[in-house]
Amino acid sequence: MTKHNALFMSLDELNILILEDNLSMVKIYKNILNSFGVKQISFATSVDEAKELVRMEQPDLIICDFILNGNDKYNNGLAFLRWIRQVDMAPACFTPVLMSTGHASRRIVLEFNKYGASSIVVKPLSPIILKQRIENILIDTRALIVEAGRVVIEGAVKYTKPKTQDKLVYDPGFLSRLVKNDVKKFNRKNPSNSLKIQNDDDFFAVEFNTQTMFD
Fold first, then answer.
1. Which range has the worst mean pLDDT, 39-43, 82-86, 119-123, 210-214?
2. In what helix (H) or strand (E) does residue 19 lie, and over which residues does it extend?
3. Measuring CA to CA, which residue among 55, 24, 61 is closest to residue 41?
4. Contact predicate 185/193, CB 8 Å
């Protein structure tokens, strides 16, 4: 079975591509990665730039931010992940991708897994956590398999849409009918009492007259 391209590489051997639109964040990444012994680091600030660098440099590992400047369906980290995981991109489709986000909801995490993310790191960055994520990727022996023309990680949690819940049907006359029926029952038990209701839909009038009767 196919494994990812960076399996069992050491940190100082890695050529890492960072897809991040915030240049201050890029600098933080570089400083942290340099402290781990990583020597080859390139970066892109848009999906198009990242695609070019993938073709030119063939990085061993990619750190990919989820939300990019001017985020849309083409310029975001998930769109890049879906692009690189196409079988037509071989051998780049087997490159491990570490997704980075400050919005780690369950839905987003499952979407990353669905499209073949190797791991996820949550901002603000912790150097210790980042190093753990990268080292775990380097020893990750899970198989990469092809499904519908895309590469996914065997055993990854799949995203499934929640079941559609039954919709409530709005019936504007239901409440007034309910009150009216309760009033009829009450009047049958207490024939001396009476309620004056001018309009079936006038719920506030019903409430007012009911309160007055018991005061």
1. 210-214
2. strand 15-19
3. 61
4. no
Torsions phi, psi for 120 (to 5 deg): -135, 140
Q: Which range is least confidently modeled, 41-45, 79-83, 211-215?
A: 211-215
The Cα-based distances of 98 to 52, 197, 202 in angstroms read 18, 67, 60
In the chain, what are the domain boundaries?
11-153, 174-214
Contact 6, 14 (CB under 8 A): yes
Under DSSP, the state recorded for 60 is S
| φ and ψ at residue 144, rounded to 5 degrees | -100, 125
Structure token digits, residue 82: 């879906």
ω before 91 within 30° of 0 (cis)?
A: yes
Does the structural domain 11-153 have CATH classification 3.40.50.2300?
yes
The pLDDT tens digits for 126-143 are 999 999 999 999 999 999
- In this prediction the pTM is 0.73
Long-range contacts of 167-176 (CB under 8 A, 24+ apart): 172/201, 173/200, 173/201, 175/203, 176/200, 176/201, 176/202, 176/203, 176/206
